Amino acid sequence: MTATRVLVLNSGSSSVKYQLLDMRDSSRLAVGLVERIGEEASRLKHTPLLGGEPREQNRPIADHEEALKAVAVELAQDGLGLDSPELAAIGHRVVHGGKFFTQPTVIDDAVLAEVERLIPVAPLHNPANLTGIRTAMALRPDLPQVAVFDTAFHTTMPESASRYAIDVRTADEHRIQRYGFHGTSHAYVSRKTAELLGKEAEDVNVIVLHLGNGASASAVRGGRCVDTSMGLTPLEGLVMGTRSGDVDPAVIFHLMRVGSMSADEVDVLLNKKSGLIGLCGDNDMREIRRRIDEGDQAARLAFDIYVHRLKKYIGAYYAVLGRVDAVVFTAGVGENAAPVREAAIAGLEELGLTVDGGLNSVRSDEPRLISPEYARVAVAVVPTDEELEIAQQSYALVRGPIPATTERPGAHL
Ligand code: ADP
């Protein structure tokens, strides 16, 4: 039997998200989430997609090992157990791969050691990713496990973009540079955009705007990233749901000296209590739009600051690329919030950028153009699919080319 399935695991500090995909047609066989791991009120939600109702468990789940074992039981109940010969690999999202992981990588002890060595630059993410990997390896030691790094797509950035202008020795000693994140999404979306334009990825220059709760922009020249807005950590760049994005670094020591805040307090302020939520108390763009419609001034200002920053990055990356074939919006806000797309592109006609109001207001799960036919530069919406990208990269690494079929084994989300 040919193994055609990949289990994708995204392990957070207190959660595990998973999807089981069949590579023959990129369909999902099951998806699910375990959250609040380590708390009393843990929850597992499992959705089989070949038939059957979603199932939920509400009980304490002590750690990642217990969580993954519970997931394995759920999958087995649908005939999709982890012991199935049809499982080709487990693909893990790993947030920080530093400078050296430029490609998806089969995990061995050396890879684990390197991901561990990167913990100081990714203290929130890499430990959780490692726990997920170690647990999955213990469950299926014989199966290839692949790490797909959020940073990998950005390792092609030239040093002129990736280095900060700080003392070189200090930067090198502490591995301080711009790494960028959301790379799996930027890679997938820039490739899909080339397809949408009917061109090869090597022939197009694209500005990708990944606007989820976290948000980042990237400049992609001929399929390779040349600049991105997130930096040493995912805090830099655009205004996000709860993160400030760019601030004058002096704000930090000012708060420590004059505001008597500790480094940890400033960290929490900028990562968790800033961005949209800090500006207006809400981080959901739907709620912000609703409040704006009711005349709420704080929501209006938060929206305007968000859009202003976005527009600055579009202009900056236009200049970095020199020639732009498409500006593309993706992730929760980018795919759904037509007013954000309209406002970010407004006034950029001289750059060849225009949004067609009618096309922009169409709701769809498909990649689509929202610029008028005559526009010099395409503006597009391309739904991202990080899990599919992780599954495809993992499969290609351990098995080679994706098997083609006309069968449709599973369900499409
Ligand atoms: P994450 O970074 O958590 O993966 P997502 O890409 O799922 O985030 O984006 C989540 C965000 O998308 C929400 O916080 C909300 O602001 C926004 N969003 C989702 N649906 C809509 C919608 N229909 N209209 C406007 N914004 C939306």
Describe this structure in a few short sentences.
The protein has 413 residues and is of the alpha/beta class. It contains 15 helices and 14 strands.
Provide the fold topology.
Layout (H helix, E strand, L loop, with lengths): L4 E7 L4 E7 L4 E9 L7 E6 L6 E4 L5 H14 L9 E8 L10 E2 L2 H9 L8 H14 L5 E5 L9 H4 L5 H6 L9 H14 L8 E7 L3 E7 L2 E5 L21 H8 L5 H10 L2 H6 L4 H9 L3 H25 L4 E5 H6 L1 H8 L11 H5 L6 E2 L8 E4 L4 H14 L14
Parallel strand pairs: 1-6, 6-8, 9-12, 12-14
Antiparallel strand pairs: 1-2, 2-3, 3-4, 4-5, 7-8, 9-10, 10-11, 13-14
Bound molecules: adenosine-5'-diphosphate.
Q: How does this model look, in words?
A:
A hairpin with a 3-residue loop joins strand 9 (205-211) and strand 10. This protein folds into two domains: 5-149 and 387-399, 2-Layer Sandwich (Nucleotidyltransferase, domain 5), CATH 3.30.420; 200-382, ATPase, nucleotide binding domain (Nucleotidyltransferase, domain 5), CATH 3.30.420. It has an eight-stranded mixed β-sheet, sandwiched between helices. Strands 11-10-9-12-14-13 form a six-stranded mixed β-sheet, with helices on both faces. Helices cover 37% and strands 19% of the residues. It has 15 helices and 14 strands. It is α/β, with parallel strands linked by helices and 413 residues long. It is globular, with a radius of gyration of 22 Å. Helix 11 packs across helix 13 (338-345). 44% of the residues are buried. Bound molecules: adenosine-5'-diphosphate. Adenosine-5'-diphosphate (ADP) binds at residues 212-214, 241, 283-286, 331-333, 336-337.
